What we know:
The chain has eleven helices and twelve strands. By secondary structure, it is an alpha/beta fold.
Amino acid sequence: xxxxxxxxxxxxxxxxxxxxxxxxxxxxxxxxxxxxxxxxxxxxxxxxxxxxxxxxxxxxxxxxxxxxxxxxxxxxxxxxxxxxxxxxxxxxxxxxxxxxxxxxxxxxxxxxxxxxxxxxxxxxxxxxxxxxxxxxxxxxxxxxxxxxxxxxxxxxxxxxxxxxxxxxxxxxxxxxxxxxxxxxxxxxxxxxxxxxxxxxxxxxxxxxxxxxxxxxxxxxxxxxxxxxxxxxxxxxxxxxxxxxxxxxxxxxxxxxxxxxxxxxxxxxxxxxxxxxxxxxxxxxxxxxxxxxxxxxxxxxxxxxxxxxxxxxxxxxxxxxxxxxxxxxxxxxxxxxxxxxx
Length: 341
């Protein structure tokens, strides 16, 4: 009976999860060898998105080299650039989370290894964050500013009802954002690289070439698309110029999709009304960064999906796929290596 060697590189699993894994098939042999990049190293990979431009790896221990050489399955997030070369027996990688930027900087995207992810696994939490931001901008921000000045005076706020929301990237997270819109009376339009056909609750889906046309209609713009070589710096000065002067911009995708200088200029010149960024192109944002002082720019620490259920969701998708794998069934949440997500 040939073993199925599983390498886990995301910390140490508790014993109950290891028991669940081993109960799937007696052939499964588990090794746990943690491997991770720093925030700065992650940010560098967002800007590289290729093996050729990839920054240096974090140190690869002899233990990890040995485990990769035997691995048939890897459950992890960060992996060395030349993982495929180091893991000749590798057949499947389950990526924790949805972003592919770390794998785009490896030799795993050649189509010889199955890659799956947790696409949309905490979409509900990210959608909660997005709508929290929308309600903050339209309903609360003015009152909070008054409170800072210890000013109490009757004042109006904006209607959310009747606004147009543009969702850029209608995957799992984007769909969760769209699902909440009817409760607020918000019209939804979207943009996606894929020909999706009709989507309930979405009035129209634009192709990427019509991005600026879509933006001109929007009071609210939300980014939920994947970071790929095609979407790197997708939002530049022309995109912000295409938006309405009173529009709000929310990014829960990846920071490198946006030209930060162009966004800052748009805010300072009041070409848009405000922005909320859960992701930035350079993370972590240092205390000395001028971003902290940009008017109507709000920053959170890449945490919109960081809820207690996140770990449960990641593991649940993996276990479902592990059961499929040992039975020879098709895996779910597969990544299209040509598209990069």
